[in-house]
Amino acid sequence: MNFDKAKAAFNGYLTDYDLNDAKVRLKIVHTHQVILLCEFISKALGLGNEDIELAKLIALLHDIARFDQVKRFSHFVDAGICDHADAGIKILFETSRIRDFISDDCYDNIILKAIWNHNKYEIEEGLDGKELLHCKIIRDADKLDNFRVKAEDDFEDIASITKRSLENGSISDEVFIDFMACRQIAAHKRKTDLDFWVSIIAFVFDINFACSFEYIREKSYVNVLIDRIEYQNEEVQNKMEQIRKCATQHMARRLRASGLGAETSKGGESTCWNYTA
Length: 277
Known about the structure:
Blueprint: H1 3-13, H2 22-44, H3 49-61, H4 66-73, H5 84-94, H6 108-117, H7 129-152, H8 155-159, H9 163-167, H10 173-180, H11 193-201, H12 210-219, H13 221-227, H14 234-257
Helix pairs in contact: 1-3, 2-3, 2-7, 3-7, 5-6, 6-7, 7-13, 12-14
């Protein structure tokens, strides 16, 4: 496995797209950040070099269809248009383009399963141990950098929404109920732009590894995303404070269950245990 060769092939793939487009740049940065996060998680789990390099390759390719999506539709909305993970599988495997990135086909099924599952509501059943491991790694890494994107990037580039629509938005009852039950928000339940924003915070309910929880806590992403919006409606303000408390308590429970408490994040060190409860 030659990751430098894969990166060169990826850069070649990008020549078909407008690198000055803010949305294209956003996804390039996201891809490289997810690579770093997959490496971080893999090393924290104590994995060997083969799995670390494989996790990085999956990260490199996990959003490969996003660039064509921006070129064709000028947005990242999957619902009713295309599933970017499904489209990525077609790009890589229906025309054997995967061979541009890795010559050995022995990892193909793991790569395919990890990419296909990275954006689904939950991981499919029936995977073997290695497939499941890499599905969990890319899902965590993708969510961790999604928090960064939502904390830093322009709202229009993120999801064709505006700060004004979030400030004056409402939270659908079904979305709020699911969040307070510590459940992810299914895409079909989102009715408002603020529902979308809440669904990002709800990523905390689908994190697999303790080091990922600690990373979210150290970056204070729950607070950052909630506080990025100036909510104009008092009822919405109250709901967002309940959401803040629910998410914070959930992460604290998961960290305690994994052997990490609030005192363990001192000194800048991160420890990683697989959370399976």
